[in-house]
Amino acid sequence: MDSQSMIVELKKALEEARRKFEDARSAITQAEQDIQSLQGAIEFYERNLPMREIARQAFNVLGAVVKPLESVLQGMSHRQAVIAIAKHKGGVIKAQDAKQIMIRAGVMKNTKNSTHMVHNAIISSERFDRIGRGEYRLRVPSNATMTALATGVFPPKSPLQ
After folding, report:
1. Residue 100 and residue 107: Cα distance in Å, rounded?
2. For residue range 16-69, what is the model confidence (pLDDT) as tens digits?
3. Looking at CB atoms within 10 Å, which of 147, 153, 154, 161 has the fewest?
4. How high is the mean pLDDT of the chain?
5. What is the 3-state secondary structure (H, E, C) of the chain?
6. d(Cα 34, Cα 125) in Å, to the nearest integer?
7. How large a percentage of the chain has pLDDT more than 90?
8. Short-list 83, 64, 74, 59, CA closest to 136
């Protein structure tokens, strides 16, 4: 190999090394910017402790604070709770999800029988259709039923039925 071709090869190697160096430098610069952004966010939340609570709360379209589902369920019976959960979830409820929500809300305790209790509440409410294994859809009452209930044609069921 002559000296001229050696110089050309060395220049190519130098350009490749410079390109690799610039790629590494840009990656380091990006990582430094990410670190600064994260440090700024941490410092902001440390300075503004009440902001953590505000960030956790959900706001509806009108800007009013929406209560967490667990706080709404407190004091409800199992039947009322599964219906409220189904309404909150868009009409479809999974028994295992409902069980976990009800346990977090304090409506029931986590026992061996809690899954059966949720299924029993869903079935005995007579307001759900089974759509899959452990999955139920809330029935929408027809207009005739709503009218009959409003006019008192159907007497309310006794709690023992």
Report:
1. 10
2. 999 999 999 999 999 999 989 888 888 877 776 655 555 555 444 445 555 677
3. 161
4. 80
5. CCHHHHHHHHHHHHHHHHHHHHHHHHHHHHHHHHHHHHHHHHHHHHHCHHHHHHHHCCECCCCCECCCHHHHHCCCCHHHHHHHHHHHCCCEEEHHHHHHHHHHHCCCCCCCCHHHHHHHHHHHHCCEEEEECCEEEECCCCHHHHHHHHHCCCCCCCCCC
6. 53
7. 35
8. 83
- Residue 50 has a pLDDT of 58
The rounded distance, in Å, linking the Cα atoms of 84 and 61 is 20
Query: For residue 117, which of 70, 76, 78 has the smallest C-alpha distance?
Result: 78
Q: Name the residue with higher pLDDT: 59 or 83.
A: 83
For the segment 129-161, what is each residue's pLDDT rounded down to a tens digit?
Answer: 999 898 999 887 655 555 555 555 555 565 555
Is 128 exposed, middle or buried (CB count within 10 Å of its CB: 0-12, 13-18, 19+)? buried
Tokens of 45: 């939340």
- In the block, tokens 């959900």 appear at 58
**148's tokens:** 């009959």
